[in-house]
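The protein record quoted in full:
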Amino acid sequence: MSDLTRHADTPAPWLRGIQASAGLTAEGLFIRYRIDADRARLAIPETTAPERVEGLWRHTCLEAFVMGADAPAYREFNFSPSGAWQAYGFHAYRQGGPLEDATAPRIERTPAAELGLRVFLPTQNLPSGPRLLLGLSAVIEAADGSLSYWALRHPPGRPDFHHSDCFALELARP
């Protein structure tokens, strides 16, 4: 597991840390997120049936940005602890929209003793190429409505998970 770092402009003293890991198989991409926080201070949505929902990034949302190592095109996947999800396709930096033909990911909350998610993205959702670059990130909403932004790596300036600096993990296809 790798530690995500909090963006310096978004303090969250009640959030001790977030870890994420990813693995790539012939079937798809497996991602695990673990949040270490004072649960009473978090805004965590209730579990519902899995469905596509727009604007998940405005609340507690775990994210994966996935790029083929040889192309500027990338995909963004949002996962809510509720089970809601969304997928976007971009042909260049922030140039794109919803990925209409995305297959629903499998999203599981981790056991009650641990706050986090396990996610499986099928291969057909991923960009092509022998290597993938990933940006794993999280938006965490506090009970008071404030947001903190976490990523493997942050670019200079405001939080921006789309920035190429955030694609900090490289995985080779099996």
Q: What stands out?
A: The longest strand covers residues 131-141. The domain at 2-172 is CATH 2.60.40.1190 (Immunoglobulin-like). The CA atoms of residues 18 and 117 lie 11 Å apart. The radius of gyration is 15 Å.
